[in-house]
Write a structure and sequence with these properties.
This protein has 334 residues and is mainly alpha-helical. It is 64% helix and 2% strand.
Length: 334
């Protein structure tokens, strides 16, 4: 018999290079990239089996929401401290915070839309036009926002036109969604800080939305039993919504009376309306993620996910907060 040393050896299998579709992009891909298959997170039996087979890889959950609660609280407090220092020292620094947040949130949404649906967005016009809307809101008010919006819409049409007719409506429509949802709404957050008492107006806006999120989370985690929108966000309950209304209205009454020296009962108007827009923003983001088959928009914030996980309720509430405070609380000197 031939010895083992003389036996022909079977060639070792070579590893095939990973295809682009198997790798999760770290940033939004070029807008002319070809569509790729969506890779849903935490979905499908294959993913479930792999998680069961490797329990050591499963993330440690610190709360019912699936987040590391201590880390999330620490990151939230740090972000709040930066905003508070900016508003109490040079209130115009708020515009820079809004502008940077808009860029990060827009970029996260670009990447999510491409990963989940292969959408080719007009990234350059949306990023430049979005910044123009935010920065022009200070010297030119709503006229600056509207002018920048119109130019950006035309720019999105021209930018996508060079790629031909295939998917034109889908891609341009998604670009309009990103443009109007993030930078346009956030431009009104800039408008809040323009008056002489702008720092107080921004604080009222932030306090109400934060109270709404906190009250809804607390009461929903304690006694939440009746789903509010099971097909959109199964963890949201009507009990949690009641907690948002109570906490948001309380925060509105106190902040309006103490910071803006206006009648406290204005908070009974501002509170519920901002709670409604905050919850709507949260549900809209949940619906988009569910449609795209992803868990988070990004991973820039430890314990939170992407920045959009924190911006969703603020973005949709900013225009309503600006309008309500403009109508109810007279501007200084008027």
């Amino acid at each position: 018999m031939p010895s083992s040393a003389s036996r022909p050896r079977r060639p070792a299998p070579t590893e095939s290079p990973a295809s682009p579709a198997d790798a999760t992009p770290a940033a939004a891909p070029p807008d002319d990239a070809q569509p790729e298959e969506a890779q849903p997170e935490d979905a499908g039996p294959e993913n479930s089996q792999s998680r069961d087979a490797r329990p050591q890889d499963a993330p440690k959950r610190g709360s019912k929401a699936g987040r590391n609660l201590p880390v999330a609280i620490g990151v939230g407090l740090a972000m709040g401290a930066v905003i508070l220092v900016a508003l109490l020292t040079v209130r115009q620094a708020w515009i820079a915070i809004v502008a940077v947040s808009a860029v990060i949130g827009t970029w996260e949404l670009f990447g999510a839309l491409h990963r989940g649906a292969g959408i080719r967005l007009s990234r350059v016009p949306v990023l430049i036009g979005g910044q123009a809307m935010i920065w022009l809101a200070w010297p030119f008010d709503t006229e600056g926002i509207l002018g920048a919006l119109l130019v950006t819409v035309i720019g999105c049409f021209l930018w996508r036109m060079r790629l031909g007719a295939g998917g034109f409506v889908r891609d341009v429509g998604a670009s309009m969604l990103v443009l109007c949802w993030i930078p346009l709404c956030m431009a009104f957050a800039t408008m809040l800080v323009v008056p002489a008492d702008g720092a107080a107006r921004v604080l009222v806006f932030l306090i109400v939305v934060i109270c709404s999120d906190t009250g809804g989370y607390a009461l929903g985690a304690l006694i939440g039993k009746h789903p509010m929108a099971p097909k959109v966000s199964p963890k949201k309950s009507w009990e949690g919504f009641a907690g948002s209304i109570i906490a948001g209205s309380t925060g509105a009454c106190l902040s309006i009376a103490l910071l803006l020296d206006a009648p406290w009962w204005f908070g009974l108007i501002v509170g519920p309306l901002l709670v409604a827009t905050a919850v709507t923003g949260d549900l809209v983001e949940s619906l988009i993620k569910r449609d795209l088959g992803i868990k988070d928009m990004g991973s820039v914030l430890p314990g939170h996910g992407g920045l959009m996980e924190r911006l969703d309720s603020l973005v949709t509430s900013a225009p309503v907060a600006w309008l309500l405070l403009l109508v109810l609380v007279p501007l200084p000197g008027t």
